[in-house]
Amino acid sequence: MTKTTVPIGPQHPLLKEPMSFQLGLEGERVAESAMRIGYVHRGIERLCQERSYVQNIYLLERVCGICSHVHATTYSRAVEALMGVEVPPRGVYLRALMCEFERIHSHLLWLGVIARNIGFDTIFNYAWRDREIVLDIMEDLSGGRVSHAANTLGGSRFDLTDEHRDKILEQLQIMDAQIQLLLGAVEHERTLRERTRGIGKLTLEQIHRYCVVGPVARASGLDIDLRRDRHEAPYDRLEFAVPVHTDGDVWARTLVRVQEAVESVSLCRQILNSLPEGPVTTRVPRRVPAGEAISRSEAPRGEVIYYVRSDGSDKPARVKVRTPTLTALVTLSEQLADVQMADVSVVLSGVDLCIACADR
Amino acid sequence: MELVKDVTEMRARVLATFAEAFPGQDFETREIPTDDVVITLPAGNVVAAVGALSEKLGMTHLTTITGDDMGDEIRLLYHMWHGCGLTLEVKLPLTDPRIATLTEQIPGATMYEREISDMFGVVFDGHPDLSRLLLPDSWDGPPPMLKSSDGAKEDQV
């Protein structure tokens, strides 16, 4: 059969961010695929070497337009480790609170995207409407819907009053009801299942080979979540389940993400109810001593790592970021092999790509 | 899958594995926050080391590879995670930096090696496709993360 090449991107209505695919089709099936990224490469790692440690927090927030807070937090943790500074418990809790709000927001955003791509606009509209609740809370807390600037070296830049906390708990109540509704729809609605089941399959063996992380890995049976497995505060004092499924297809990823969002709502509630008293920041030294530190976190898309090396000057000598999307990108050619052209968009959105993250 | 508890245990287990794989060799190690142990290896040993770690300890997760221009040499850091962090450190010369690819043992290293080839000009021998990953095809300057590079010119931005 003759092969047809279909180019998708760098600019394409299917893609939310610029990247490029060359799909070689045999009839309606994808026979081969090639991919190119780098269209939103901003040279952030190099820029970090030319800015001060504090300025970098706000630069690194711009790595991602969805999980901005977790980047700033992970970077701050690395620098604080270099300084030998310990963040007060209230600061740690508030950082985690924001991370969990961000996870809900990210997963609901994704649910909307995948629903839209399979033509299920009801879920799209519900998911994006409910996501507004979380965005409102985050805006209330930090002043920003997406870039929160909620971190500083040594702790959190925002604090909560009791009235504020009660208001958020009320909003979470609504959120909880809505997200249960979405979970019910995802679990029982046949349309969604039929469009996503068996598509974009990754086996556990492939997950290990390609070092895939996050919800994509957990949907293939890899039971790793750094929040739990690194035993770090405050997650070691909170109760939450890590949803794991074994089917490895887009359907399993949908379940993992929505169930994770449900867990995150409960985590937010636990954090708010057990918020320790005390200051939210601590004083940090003016100089960062020479040395290196590595910090890891579980971002909404999986493990994110920061490597920071200091040479004792006022700017870092090296900042390295690895975002979780990069691990999922490698698997795309295997996921796309032999799928129907109409399912390509489901596969692509199924892994929850964040190209700005991957390009940095 | 059994995860390693802490850095002390990680160091002990990895050094025991390496003692078996590379008899008679000594390895420099250091601990860095937040929970990582760094082990320095000769550049030729990385592939064998990763093979031994996967076979003996079941460690297959390569988080990423960091390139770092130290001024007189290029440092590659292979960050792994298995309950806590393990970083393998390798030093390469600034002129003609070369190292064997890891993609056969860990296909997940493909992107990381391509990125370092873009940004630091390191050649990974045996890599299936070292084409540009992040830099535009029209980029003709030196690898931009090297200290000797002065970044992008006006018309390249």
Strands side by side in the biggest sheet of chain B: 1-2-5-4-3
- The gyration radius over C-alpha positions of chain A equals 21 Å
Would you tell me which CATH topology of chain B applies? Beta Polymerase, domain 2
How does CATH name the architecture of chain A?
A: Orthogonal Bundle
Overall shape of chain A: it is globular
Number of beta strands of chain B: 7
The name of the CATH superfamily of chain B reads NADH:ubiquinone oxidoreductase Nqo5 subunit
What Rg of chain B, in angstroms, do the CA atoms define?
A: 17 Å
| Residue fraction in strands of chain B | 25-35%
Query: What class, by secondary structure content of chain A?
Result: alpha+beta
Number of domains of chain A: 1
| Main interface by residue count | A-B, 38 and 40 residues
Order of helices and strands of chain B: HEEHEEEEHE
> Oligomer, anyone?
heterodimer
Please sum up the structure shown.
By secondary structure, chain A is an alpha+beta fold. Chain A has a single domain, classed as Cytochrome-c3 Hydrogenase, chain B (Orthogonal Bundle), CATH 1.10.645.
Structure description:
The complex is a heterodimer of chains A (360) and B (157). By secondary structure, chain A is α+β, with helices and mostly antiparallel strands. Chain A has a single domain (45-359), classed as Cytochrome-c3 Hydrogenase, chain B (Orthogonal Bundle), CATH 1.10.645.10. In chain A, 49% of the residues lie in helices and 14% in strands. Chain A has helices at residues 44-48, 53-60, 68-83, 89-117, 121-142, 162-188, 190-196, 204-210, 214-218, 226-229, 250-273, 325-329, 332-336, 344-350, 355-359; strands at 3-8, 20-26, 29-36, 151-152, 155-156, 291-299, 302-310, 316-322. In chain A, the strands form 3 sheets. Chain A has a 3-stranded antiparallel sheet, with no helix packed on it. In chain A, helix 6 (162-188) runs antiparallel to helix 11. Chain A starts with a strand and ends with a helix. The model of chain A has no long low-confidence stretch (mean pLDDT 89). With 157 residues, chain B is α/β, with parallel strands linked by helices. Chain B has a single domain, classed as 2-Layer Sandwich (Beta Polymerase, domain 2). Chain B contains 3 helices and 7 strands. In chain B, a hairpin with a 3-residue loop joins strand 4 and strand 5. In chain B, helix 1 (7-21) packs across helix 2 (46-57). The chains are: A alpha+beta (360), B alpha/beta (157). Chains A and B meet through helix 3, helix 8, strand 6, strand 7 and strand 8 of A and strand 3, strand 4 and helix 3 of B.
